[in-house]
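Quick one, tokens below:
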């Protein structure tokens, strides 16, 4: 009976590890979209984190002035990502004016995750999604 119990517990533990790994991979992609909506009602900063799969995260800070439009925020975000991410690993562009696309460079093998770490800019909403 102890052997059966140990095998059951072992199988459950292995299942949990596989599930956790699958969830971690759900947050990895080769292309991300950051949708920006709303004009800034205050000056502040937005901090993003771009993390290659099993790699070192890169934090990117975007400075936003009061009354900045969503299209200008997207342009500033694009410029900050280009300037602050490791060169040659990502391709960054704006799309539809208010969206920013981040893609892995063709020469870069690792997929990555993108997250908003913080923002203290009032009235600006950011939505990050895989493409």
């Amino acid at each position: 009976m102890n052997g059966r119990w140990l095998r059951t517990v072992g199988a459950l533990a292995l299942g949990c590890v596989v599930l956790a790994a699958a969830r971690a991979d759900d947050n990895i992609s080769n292309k991300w979209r950051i949708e920006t909506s709303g004009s800034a009602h205050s000056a502040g900063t937005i901090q993003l984190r771009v993390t290659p799969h099993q790699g070192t995260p890169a934090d990117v800070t975007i400075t936003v002035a009061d009354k900045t439009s969503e299209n200008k925020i997207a342009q500033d975000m694009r410029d900050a990502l280009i300037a602050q991410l490791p060169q040659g690993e990502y391709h960054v562009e704006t799309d539809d004016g208010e969206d920013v696309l981040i893609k892995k460079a063709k020469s870069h093998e690792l997929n990555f995750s993108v997250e908003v770490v913080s923002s203290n800019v009032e009235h600006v909403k950011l939505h990050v999604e895989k493409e």
